[in-house]
Amino acid sequence: MENENIERRDFLSRAFKAGISTAIVSGAAYYFYDGQGPRPPHLETKKQNKQKLVTIPDFSMAEHKNKMAIAHGKHRGKSVRKAMKVLGGMQAFIQKGDRVLIKVNAAFATPSMLGATTHPDLLAEVVKMCLEVGASSVAVTDNPINDPQSCFALSGITNAAEKSGAKLILPKKSYFQPTTIPGGKLIKNWPLFYHPLQNVDKVIGMTPVKHHQRSGASMTMKNWYGLLGGRRNIFHQNIHNIIKELAIMIKPTLVILDGTVTMMSNGPTGGSLNDLKKTNTLIVSTDQVAADAYGLTLLENHALLPYIEKARESGVGVSDYTSLNPIHLPE
Amino acid sequence: MKRQKKSHSKKETIIGISILLLLLVIAFGVYRQQFHFHPALLDAEEIEKGKLPDRSFSGKKNVLSKKSAKKKQDLSQFLPDSFTAMAAEETFSPDNLSDKINGKAELYLPAGFVQLRCRRFVSKKEKTVWMEAFVYDMANGRGAYTVYSSQRREGTMPAQLATFSYQTENALYFICGRYYVEIVAAVVDSNVQEAMNTWGKNFVTAIPKQDARMTELEIFPRKNMDRESIYLQATNAFGFEKFDNVFSATYMVEEEELTAYVSLRQNEQQAQFLADAFCSFLLNNGAVEQKSQSISGARIFELYDTYEIVFIAGKIIIGVHEAENRSEAEKLIGAMYKNIEENGYGK
Questions:
Q1: Which tens digit of pLDDT belongs to each residue from B97-117?
Q2: Chain A interface includes B40 (CB < 8 A)
Q3: CA end-to-end span of chain A, whole Å?
Q4: What ipTM score was computed for the predicted complex, to two decimals?
Q5: What's the gap in Å between the CA of A205 and the closest CA on chain B?
Q6: Distance (Å) from the alpha carbon of A58 to chain B's nearest alpha carbon
Q7: Helices A306-313 and A239-249 meet at what angle, rounded to 10?
Q8: Is the Cβ pair A236, B106 closer than 8 Å?
Q9: How far, rounded to the nearest angstrom, does the alpha carbon of residue A302 sit from its chain's CA centroid?
Q10: What is the pTM (predicted TM-score) of this model?
């Protein structure tokens, strides 16, 4: 009997010790657990070490879902006005007092004639249109990896923005905050060029149609790459998924895809006029997936690129642009 | 009666120690792994240590210092008097080449890219007339040829500058030794075109050339060949991962296009091994092997109504890819083999 008591006592003692050990280890694991992971130093300052993740608001307009217009012509200004008119006019999208942000492609310090960046004439026209309908402000932005001032200046965007009455927002360290997109595997706790997106009511993406060495094409969805900070070039190894996540990340009011002159080869930088073809087409749409799918036809690419299919599967938009019954406007 | 402490058997002790050791190993592994950050965040450490510039928002930290610019030949020294430097010289390494040329870096890196130096120059008379020179150090002439040939534009004009050179309305492209050079003008203008050519000539004169002889180019028969189509694929030729260092050229024969290719290997064994591997790749992708009646030793495959021919001559692999006309493809192989035999290539 006494031996049984010893055995039981011993068991209880050991069980208690094991329980305490387990509780201590579990508690320590819970204390050290960090679901977000480490952050780059520029987000880990004393001031920012409790920085919350930001989310980009939804700038799309439900009443204008699934709209697309395709204007044909050599003159960008005329094409964009024609296209906007059949979609209800700029006033259908920009209300009086709206603060508008135009995200351009200013990725390279190259002249506009090389087709690698948003054309200044198109930008100037759209800025004017926004101000005509009563926008209280129009800002233009991008985050080129190359020297931003050179990129904006040499591409003609600075001049066009200033002359048409828009404000240019160049990137600064303090303009970045971390973001994670829902279900994102790449854009997780990643620095986002957030400042320009704050305190705006409408966002327009504007970019040319270009061949891209890695992804096949650089169009409206890839244009949002310029909102990422950090060493974003690592995503080139997973280019189709990052483009998909960019399209999930931001729901713009409109996208304008400029195929007036298309970069057919040697993209995204191009360099020679021989890389370009006058395709005289400009697409305005509220569905960036559909816009890109149509843009592929200008690149004479008849197979959908993986990122377009991925974006469609994620519910960002439709790849069958014909289902939107786009309005074609001849020259 | 005093409770006696139960003693543990040797077996229990060993098991207990083993478990503790295992837990220690796991703990060490977790401790080690938690410092292997996401690749992008890895740079966070480097930035903190001051080794890398913070590129959260800008990539302008690539300006060549005055000292190192002097060591290498300053790119502005090749300018005509009518032009001057517009900005400081920039340099890019394999780590940050994409900061300058974005996704196009993927073309250069596998081809042996070492460094890019670039600089903008502007006309002294007219500030809107400017150009940018890009000097890519590709480690050797083959690397330079790879990127030159893969970006060859159509409808270009010959440039009397180097063996491999051409120009367009606004740009000049050429190879000089290990360097692939592009000069791109911001406008179409005769003055800037003249400046580009002067810069190019001065560069070619100044830079010592170590042209690697590309025997493969001599194997392609000249008849019916589109000379602008010659292309050196550094890797993954025809979708086959192991097929590297492959020259290809396009021929137009009776309105049909043929693609011939040549790959010089290190030795006969390697050539045989790679050719066999490529043939297996074709078979695994649905090709059906056929008997060759005209060329002894050639392997012929039919794949989706086209023909593939693979032939080994010493350490050289030659072939025709996706030919619609088998007879013409075989003639082309015959012509290539004749060039090899007559000149003693591949021995």
A1: 999 999 899 999 999 999 999
A2: yes
A3: 104
A4: 0.83
A5: 19
A6: 24
A7: 40
A8: yes
A9: 24
A10: 0.80
